[in-house]
Design brief:
By secondary structure, the chain is an alpha/beta fold. The chain folds into 2 domains: about 140 residues, 3-Layer(aba) Sandwich (Rossmann fold); about 180 residues, Rossmann fold. A 7-stranded parallel β-sheet has the order 8-7-6-9-10-11-12, with helices on both faces. A 5-stranded parallel β-sheet has the order 2-1-3-4-5. The chain binds glyoxylic acid. Glyoxylic acid binds next to loops. The site of glyoxylic acid (GLV) has 6 residues, from loops.
Length: about 325
């Protein structure tokens, strides 16, 4: 019997030992293409025929583009599993995968601590106007003149978490240690043991009453621009917003306006609508604390994520199932 074939889109940077166990059970194929047109041509040439499981990285989008109907039409029909290394899978059109009989997995849990850590760092940094001090210091002006406005303590402030998945719950637990009063809104209320003591409120209450708003919801067609001009208008004036989810859950141009008017006093951002491009209005505003999508940028977490995604590949090859199928496809799990 011929050996199973696994397609590697992107590369393995850390979990080499785990990956070697895949080479033991399958032939690994790597595409030669360097862009989407070449990749589609390579698929159509038959070079990837027989592949049943695909491992992909976030950065592989730079070669293949989005995993959508066009790409799925070009890929061999033998592909049944797509194992994404990352928690967020907005680069993958899930309904199109379902229609093409392709099951998709992501790496939930593995990213929670590292992303929540950066989330908390951004909350404190934005509350304390640290970006302004950092800019002045780097320009050789100590705190600058005038110095940054005095910041705010997190203790006693209302933190509103939008999206109470693994990362949102981790942020809630950590924010409690900083004395924050944590509330959340989620499509459905969590069971009490998962709530981390956070109070469930309506979306509108979360916007109106939060001192700090933390965006922890996934990006999909339903959540794009969840925070846009009408939502900024409802917020408590002077709110602080932090986003470690995906840039496009918030309308970046509307955020620039809300910062300019003072409706939003400061933001901490790890993610942007059109990475790696950043809206010039954000770069120019010293009330914006920014990092370049580094939420999971630690050795330990990158290792964990690769191992998790490789576990999915192994299970798909050996047993025809996934360890962490995406929620939209839960009903398809064998
Ligand atoms: O952004 C990081 C991830 O989706 O894992």
């Amino acid at each position: 019997m011929s050996r199973p074939k696994v397609l590697l889109l992107g590369k393995i940077d850390h979990a080499h030992v785990a990956w070697s166990t895949i080479a033991d059970i399958a032939d690994v194929i790597q595409p030669k293409a360097t862009n989407r047109a070449e990749f589609i041509a390579e698929c159509q040439s038959g070079a990837l025929d027989g592949v049943s499981v695909t491992y992909r990285t976030f950065d592989s989008v730079n070669v293949t583009g989005k995993i959508d109907s066009e790409l799925l039409d070009a890929l061999p029909k033998s592909i049944k599993f797509l194992c994404h290394n990352g928690a967020g899978y907005d680069q993958i059109d899930i309904p199109a995968c379902t229609a093409h009989d392709v099951r998709v997995s992501n790496t939930p849990t593995a990213v929670d601590d590292a992303t929540a850590d950066v989330n908390i760092w951004l909350i404190i940094g934005a509350l304390r106007n640290l970006q302004i001090g950092i800019n002045a210091l780097r320009a050789g002006k100590w705190r600058g003149s005038p110095p940054p406005a005095l910041g705010h303590d997190p203790q006693g402030k209302i933190l509103g978490i939008l999206g109470m998945g693994g990362i949102g719950r981790n942020v809630a637990a950590k924010a409690k240690a900083f004395g924050m009063r944590v509330r959340y809104y989620n499509r459905s209320r969590l069971s009490p043991e998962l709530e981390e003591g956070a109070e469930y409120v309506s979306f509108e209450t979360l916007l109106k009453e939060s001192d700090v708003l933390s965006l922890n919801l996934p990006l999909n067609p339903n959540t794009r621009h969840t925070i846009a001009a009408p939502q900024f208008a409802l917020m408590k004036p002077g709110i602080v917003i932090v986003n470690t989810a995906r840039g496009a859950v918030m309308d970046e141009a509307a955020l620039v306006d809300a910062l300019a008017s003072g409706q939003v006093s400061s933001v901490g951002l790890d993610v942007y609508e059109n990475e790696p491009e950043i809206h010039p209005g954000l770069l120019a505003n010293p009330n914006v604390l920014l990092v370049p999508h580094m939420g999971t940028w630690t050795q330990e977490t990158q290792q964990k994520m690769e191992e998790w995604a490789i576990d999915n590949v192994r299970l798909a090859v050996k047993e025809g199932k996934l360890k962490s199928i995406v929620p939209e496809q839960k009903a398809l799990a064998a």
